[in-house]
Amino acid sequence: MFTQIRQSTLPSLRSDHNPIVLTCGDEVFKKSYFKFEKWWLNVEGFRDKVKEWWGSFNVTGSPDFILASKLSYLKKKLKEWSKENRGNWRVKKEHLLEQIGSLEDIQEHRALTDDEQLLKAHIAMEYEEIHWRQRSIIQWIKNGDKNTKFFHRMATSHKRNNTIESLVINGEESSDPVAIKNEIVDFYQILYKETESWRPSLNILDVQTITEEEQILLSRDFEEKEVLEGIKQCVVDKARGPDGYTMAFFGVFWETIKDDAFSGLKVNWRKSSIFPIKEVQQIEDLASILKCKIKKLPIVYLGMPLGSEHKAEKNWDGIIEKTKKKLAIWKSQYLSLGGRVTLINSVLDSLPTYVMSIFPIPNRIVMILDALSRNFLWQGNKLEKGFNLVKWYVVQQRKKNGGLGVRNLKVHNMSLLSKWLWRYSQEEQALWKEIINHKYGQEDFWCTSEVNETYGVRVWRTIRNLWESLKNNSKIVVGKGDKTKLWLDDWCGNGILRDLFPILFSICTNTNSKIEEMWSPQGWNIIFRRLLNDWEIDGMVECLGLISGFPSTTLEPDRLAWEHHKDGIFSVNRLYNWGLKRCARRSIGPWNTIWKSVAPAKVKCFTWLVARKKMFDS
Questions:
Q1: Given CA atoms 370, 371, 372, 376 in this order, what sign does their dihedral have?
Q2: Which phi and psi (to 5°) does residue 579 adopt?
Q3: Is there a domain that residue 190 lies in?
Q4: Cα 303 from chain centroid?
Q5: HSE-up of 419 (CA within 13 Å, CB side)?
Q6: Residue 544's pLDDT is what?
Q7: Which residue, of 343, 378, 407, is where some domain finishes?
Q8: Which residues contact 439 (CB under 8 A, 6 or more apart)?
Q9: C-alpha torsion sign, points 265, 269, 270, 275
Q10: Rounded Cα distance, 299 and 301, in Å
Q11: Domain termination site, one of 407, 425, 441
Q12: Where on the tree of life does the source sit, at the highest rank (predicted)?
């Protein structure tokens, strides 16, 4: 009846009875992977062998490839050594069992002597210790203790915890290992899929920050001493990596492998190239000295096109191809309208943002990307042509304004480029700002001079052209007056004094001075080239009335503040929302009620279509 049940006897280790093993069916065996065993380190000559093997491996290539290859070659050597020197614990256990069997044969004919009984007990203990210690991943409670019972329980418990004997699948219990594995894989694939749901947001403004010294400490390069200390602090017998090596291996053989491990942090000239700009003499000699390659611009480096025209459409070819793959029409039939909106926003937010933060996006590229998004949104079935139920500019509006919140690429591009202008006004000591100032000159503290050159300036000229729009929507908050010019900056809230009082400006001697240079506790120190006429005195009185709000008692430096938010902090998202608001058309509807509800995304989108009266009559 039970054809798969088998029983067999094993040698007795302690008792005078032989244990009987009852097996019920075939055990499902998994592939055996390489594992570096800590007890190998105690074998005489093992450490010298590892050092010898490591030095004999001759590998060329990148540093990370060399390290990975040497670890792989060493793995093969360790497997061979384990078999040849009985390092394999199975062979050693079989040898111990043979010794126990020989003693049991003697015991059948006569009683064992005290020495033979002691030897049998010692062999049995050594057998159990090897067997259960190899299966356990728990450290010894005390080094050298014969804690066999402890290891036996831990190893057995791990096997029980890691074994699923049966699983209910579609209402029926199944013990088929393949079916169980497939069901588990399917379950976690569904579990970890991205879904649209409420997520908390944290607005933390007043928090304790670390000191400048701590910042430097955190950002400095790692030293060899730190790496070695980190390795030593790891638990040596746990958490094997995918290559099978434990931290014990790296700790013991650190002096042997450290050069290969650290070489990955050095410049690999074989993988490096030089790119001459215009004509460079003796470029071949330079490449020969550096042992690197010679290549030509343009190229794509870290996703950024280098050396190409900033308006060249080929800069966007990679983004278009990736967008086509991400928004393939066949995917739309498996997603609801809400799911398609989520995927479109995810793709548009991630793929083009890196390039859009540097280059202005051409109108034709905007049309292509919008077409891909639009077709994916409305093409619910790949066998049928979709209908654009709502105009695209409406879909791109914010949800609270009646849209679906799909990214407007043109406005987003403008917001990303404007970020550089804002950073320019905030980052005083930044290296990139010094380079920009050196090349284009500085109009004032807040921005560079206008770009009038014709060659090699198009990227920054495009960004600089956005300054007037950003400046008109920002205000200067005067602190101690260290950055703001009295006559040339719009700081008093009524306009630039140069434009409000042109006559006074024309006869003033210090028109380019900052506020802190023209103010003292005794009052304003405005010097004119001549005495003021009667009609000019009236203008001076009016001017002093406008700037009477200063002096300020604060010692804070002057700063630029974003006018459209009470905290004055600029962000790309805030500028984007402001840009959308400028081109938005008034739309009355229950939009907030729809999107704030707890209904699923597909229900919200369906309700949105109903509210816009854009449903098909079936």
A1: positive
A2: -65, -40
A3: no
A4: 15
A5: 17
A6: 82
A7: 407
A8: 457, 460
A9: positive
A10: 6
A11: 407
A12: Eukaryota
pLDDT, tens digit, 9 for 90 and up, residues 156-172 = 555 566 677 788 888 88
**Tokens at 483, concatenated:** 């950055």
Residue 27 has pLDDT above 60, yes or no: no
- Long-range CB contacts (< 8 A, 24+ apart) of 294-298? none
What SS3 class is residue 209? coil
Cα angle for residues 416, 422, 427 (degrees, 5° grid): 125
Residue 520, classed as helix, strand or coil, is strand
How much is the pLDDT for 133?
A: 55
Domain count, the chain: 2
Q: Give tens-digit pLDDT for 32-76.
A: 667 787 767 777 788 888 899 988 888 877 777 888 888 888 888
> How far is Cα of residue 15 from the mean position of the Cα atoms in its chain?
59
308-367 residue pLDDT tens: 776 777 778 888 888 888 888 878 777 888 888 888 888 888 777 778 888 888 899 999
Two tokens, residue 378? 């409305």
3 or 389: which carries more pLDDT confidence?
389
Q: Select, from the ranges 100-104, 222-226, 292-296, 493-497, the one with the highest average predicted confidence (pLDDT).
A: 292-296
- Note whether residue 366 is domain-resident: yes
Q: Would 116 be classed as within a structural domain?
A: yes
Q: What is the distance between the alpha carbons of residues 120 and 103, in angstroms, rounded to a whole number?
A: 7
- Torsion, Cα of 125, 128, 133, 139 (10° steps): -50
Phi first, then psi: what are they for 413, rounded to 5°?
-60, -45
CA distances from 524 to 60, 486, 527, 544 (A): 73, 11, 9, 9
Q: Give pLDDT tens digits for 107-149.
A: 777 777 777 777 766 767 666 666 655 554 444 433 344 445 5
Q: What are phi and psi of 126, to 5 degrees?
A: -65, -40
Interaxial angle between packed helices 46-56 and 63-84, expressed in degrees from 0 to 180 and rounded to the nearest 10 = 140
611 with 590: CB under 8 angstroms? Answer: yes
Residue ranges making up the domain that contains 367: 299-407
Is pTM beyond 0.85? Reply is: no
pLDDT band per the 50, 70, 90 thresholds, residue 420? very high
- The C-alpha R_g of the chain, in whole angstroms, comes to 38
* 231 domain residue, yes or no: no
Contacts of 552 (CB under 8 A, 6+ apart): 478, 479, 480, 481
Q: Which amino acid type is present at position 246?
A: T
Residue entry with tokens 């499902």: 28
Contact 459, 358 (CB under 8 A): yes
Nearest-5° Cα angle at 66, 61 to 67: 155
